[in-house]
Amino acid sequence: MDVSPDSVPEAGPGLDQRAELSEFLRTRRARLKPEDVGLPSYGRARRVPGLRREELAQLAGVSVAYYTRLEQGNGRNVSAEVLDAIARALRLSDAERAHLTHLAKPKQQRHRQAAARAQQVRPALRQLLDSFDTVPAYVTGRRTDVLAYNSMASALFGGWDRMPARERNWARLVFLRPDYRDLFLEWDGKAADIVGFLRMDAGCHTDDPQLAALVGELSVKSETFRRLWAAHDVKEKSHGVKRMRHPVVGELTLSFETFRLVDDADQSLITYHAEPGSASADALRLLASWSAEATARA
């Protein structure tokens, strides 16, 4: 059960890139069994879950010492070819391959002032959001922050316009607000997705102290987050279907699409829509009317 103690970690240094690389490789290796990759298991009890280091090194075609150094967090001078061989041996997804590359060959670290710089949304993009009359839409940035949104998104997701900007963060919303457990009918899947997105961001920006502080806060306040974070699973924002139970318009089944901005890879436009003629489409229209009336009364 999630708890909310009063103490919250303050912003400090970023995440430990070497530890992140080490734990990611260890957890990916632990999920594979010898029979999964065509190796004999001999039926004996194994002291560690999953493949042994020497077995993984054999599959990747590298020495045990070389792989051991990499799993200990030493990714200096590792080649793209070796990373690709290890990714194949570990049967990594595309998102996991990208994450491994970010951790093993991090980009030049930026100053903290740059990492803490406010994220900006182009005015034209804000105008586009407002033009979607019956389509909930918003822009996310680093650390799963909600940077901009239209009135439909605010109405669908519990009144974002009444929240402090700091609280309009998907990780905080999902793990720290009880009403979001009621809003998403498959809350467990939504929670896992959010942690996967945050992990991808962490791989790209291990030097970000605000991200490290967010992870620390959520780890203190939510046992569920702490467990999911320790799994080191990663995921890219994509598309799919979400089922929700809205307190005003009832149950909705909505498809979502993610559009990554070409001029800022850290920002994505996300839209939700219903199948034409469906009960969910009627519910969205009702929600749009209710939102407009609420705005007029305010």
Please outline what is shown here:
The chain contains 14 helices and five strands.
Helical content, roughly? 40-55%
Helix and strand composition category:
alpha+beta
- Helices and strands, in N-to-C order? HHHHHHHEEHHHHHHEEEH
Termini, distance in Å?
37 Å
Helical segment tally? 14
Please tell me what the overall shape is. Answer: elongated
Poorly predicted segments? 1-11
Task: Please give the order of strands in the largest beta sheet.
Answer: 2-1-5-4-3
Would you write up a description of this structure?
A hairpin with a 3-residue loop joins strand 3 (240-246) and strand 4 (250-261). With 298 residues, the chain is α+β, with helices and mostly antiparallel strands. Helix 2 crosses helix 4, helix 4 crosses helix 5 (94-104) and helix 9 (170-176) runs antiparallel to helix 11. Helices cover 48% and strands 12% of the residues. The chain has a five-stranded antiparallel sheet with strand order 2-1-5-4-3. It is elongated. The protein is built from 14 helices and five strands.
Secondary-structure map with pairings?
Elements: H1 17-30, H2 53-60, H3 64-71, H4 80-90, H5 94-104, H6 112-115, H7 123-131, E1 137-140, E2 146-149, H8 151-156, H9 170-176, H10 178-183, H11 187-204, H12 209-221, H13 223-230, E3 240-246, E4 250-261, E5 264-273, H14 279-297
Antiparallel strand pairs: 1-2, 1-5, 3-4, 4-5
Helix pairs in contact: 2-3, 2-4, 4-5, 5-11, 9-11, 12-13
